[in-house]
Design brief:
With about 300 residues, the protein is an alpha+beta fold. Helix content is about 35%, strand content about 25%. It is flat.
């Protein structure tokens, strides 16, 4: 399915809070793309990076990460529109609210994309027209809740400019997608064990762990020290709890073998919007972590 901007407006207005993916940076500015507006280019200067004084913008932003930022100015020059952003006045509450609201909106948009596939729309123009007939008729703050109302009350679809048959197809998409949401949690860990037959010891730890935890958890080797843990459930909190229990069991077992278990990240996706990734935890590894951990064990024995 074609990529499409989230909203009817092609560009944000001054004062809007937008999700921005950082694609390039130096000490004085960052370049990004607006995720909700078809990845159009944008920029943030060092002077707008923070309330506090910072020497380098790299202290605040990381490449390829997504941040909620405020539109500081929108300026039209000829055929180009320049959008500058700011991070100075936003509160944590505003940032979190923006992330949640955008995620909900994207769920609704992805349901419309599924519907477009069902009715065999094949071009970006057709998808854009479908959005004009459906979710773009609503204020963006209303979209997610209205779609949920359509799930339980098909008469709500009368607002949309669709044929009777199209409304039935859309309602079926809502029934199948919203009734059975699934959440997939993925964790990446790094394991080391410097005792005799260390690789075999790690393998035994993982095999024993799988016998003790949820049978739906899978553990796969990725590369080097790295292993991926995956679990899919219909309850997001149960999903988180189970994966962390598994990590703690592995950590306890590997510690007894004078090894180390370091958690790189944990993130969640869902089957309604597979591109919507929620980062639960992300850590930066200290230099020579595994060797330091091993020597620490030796000193304590």
């Amino acid at each position: 399915m074609f990529d499409i901007r989230c909203y009817k407006n092609e560009y944000p207005d001054e004062g809007d809070i937008v999700l921005t993916r950082i694609i390039d940076m130096n000490d004085y500015c960052v370049k990004g793309v607006l995720v909700e507006y078809g990845n159009i280019d944008t920029m943030l200067q060092l002077s707008q990076a923070s309330k506090r004084r910072v020497k380098s913008i790299r202290q605040i932003f990381k490449l390829n990460q997504i941040y909620p930022l405020e539109v500081f100015s929108v300026e039209q020059k000829g055929e180009h529109r320049y959008i500058d952003l700011s991070n100075k006045t936003l509160t944590d509450e505003q940032k979190n609210e923006t992330i949640i609201n955008t995620r909900r909106y994207q769920i609704a948009l992805n349901l419309i994309k599924k519907f477009a596939t069902k009715i065999k729309l094949e071009t970006l123009e057709e998808l854009t027209e479908l959005c004009n007939k459906t979710i773009w008729k609503l204020d963006k703050e209303e979209v997610f809740n209205y779609i949920k109302e359509c799930y339980s009350d098909i008469s709500k679809l009368e607002l949309f400019d669709l044929t009777v048959e199209e409304k039935k197809v859309l309602h079926t998409v809502l029934l199948t997608s919203l009734k059975n949401p699934l959440f997939k949690i993925t964790a990446k860990i790094e394991l080391s064990c410097y005792t005799f037959n260390g690789i075999s010891s790690i393998k035994n730890v993982l095999v024993d762990t799988l016998k003790e935890v949820d049978k739906n958890i899978t553990i796969t080797f990725e590369s080097g020290y790295e292993y991926l843990l995956n679990l899919t459930k219909d309850n997001i909190e149960d999903c988180k709890k189970t994966i962390y229990e598994c990590i703690n069991i592995i950590r306890n077992k590997i510690d007894k073998l004078y090894g180390s278990c370091w958690l790189r990240y944990v993130y969640i996706t869902n089957n309604i919007n597979t591109t919507d990734t929620e980062i639960i935890e992300e850590n930066t590894k200290p230099d020579n972590y595994h060797f330091s951990s091993y020597y620490s064990h030796l000193l304590n024995t």
